[in-house]
Amino acid sequence: MDVAVLPLTREYYLSLEKIYIQIGGNFSSSEDLQNFRRYIRYRSDLVKIAVHSKRIIGFIIGDQGSSSKPGVFSLYVVPEFRKCRIGSELLQELEREFTMGNINLQYLSVRIPEIFFDSKNFFLKQGFEVIAKINCYAKDNLSFPLQANPKIKIRSATKRDLIDLVKLEKICFSDYWQKNIDDFKKEIESETNSLLVAFIKGKLVGYNSNSVSTNRVEGHYARIATLPRFRKQHVATSLTVKAFQWFRKHKVQRILLTTFADSDIHNKMYKGWGFKFIEQELIMAKKFNRPDSYPR
């Protein structure tokens, strides 16, 4: 079988776009389609294709994310060419792209929607492990039912908060979930992100990060964290009040968030805020321990 795994080149742009749409890559607007086109052209280094007789029969699209935790955005092989190790070869090529000169790489991640849970076994065979099962929620109005604690000061984060943010991150999250100082810098500098910090008596005790989609339709309530000894003092509530003000300022049409499927407390809390369950996803990741363990 004559199959070549290649970098994406100009002659295959339209073919990739066509097959992506055929397999269910829906675009909610023409702007989303344009963003997809821009991405596969300007980040073509993160797109690998499998070609047979000048026909694309498989592809993988990477998501740079952070330098320490990039991801697999999409991986597909047409049915008649499955079980021929094409998916494995595509994944290996993407891994090589991410590991080339990247001494910060810790994990390669993939988020698997519920309808594709069967692909879990493929990733397990490639050295991935299940990190978490998460519940996805959406809220179609921008109201928030609670009030902020006036004793808690909330403001936008600045670079002088970076050290305290990293310290808080290490206390609140396990290794996989931790952001590094560069991740926080990017959020502070981005026009489509909001990074809010909470203070009690001058001490940084919590933060909340959010983003809006490029078409400004969706807001993403991305992360909330509070130092353990300051919980139950409405820190998270106060941060979220400000977050919803930020979403209203950007006039998003709905807000999305995710939480651990086995966290009864958080699932109950988000439902109480008016969020509706959409679906579950699996987060899987492959860990890279040392630079000399990277594939060559």
Description of the molecule:
The protein is an alpha+beta fold. It has two domains: 102 residues, Gcn5-related N-acetyltransferase (GNAT) (Aminopeptidase, 3-Layer(aba) Sandwich), CATH 3.40.630; 112 residues, Gcn5-related N-acetyltransferase (GNAT) (Aminopeptidase). Helices cover 29% and strands 32% of the residues. It is built from eight helices and twelve strands. Strands 1-2-3-4-5-12-6-11-10-9-8-7 form a twelve-stranded mixed beta sheet, sandwiched between helices. The C terminus is likely disordered.
Order of helices and strands: EHHEEEHEHEEHHEEEHEHE
Q: Supply the CATH superfamily name of the largest domain.
A: Gcn5-related N-acetyltransferase (GNAT)
Mean pLDDT: 92
Shape: elongated
Which CATH first-tier class of the largest domain would you pick? Alpha Beta
End-to-end Cα distance, whole Å, is 25 Å
Overall CATH architecture of the largest domain: 3-Layer(aba) Sandwich
Parts with pLDDT < 50 across at least 5 consecutive residues: 290-296
As for the CATH topology of the largest domain, it is Aminopeptidase
Structural class estimated from helices and strands = alpha+beta
Tell me the number of structural domains.
2
Helicity, as a percent range? 25-40%
What share of the residues does DSSP label as strand, in percent? 25-35%
Strands, total number:
12
**Largest sheet, if any?**
12 strands, mixed
| Number of H/I helices | 8
Using only CA atoms, what is the Rg?
Answer: 21 Å
Order of adjacent strands in the largest pleated sheet: 1-2-3-4-5-12-6-11-10-9-8-7
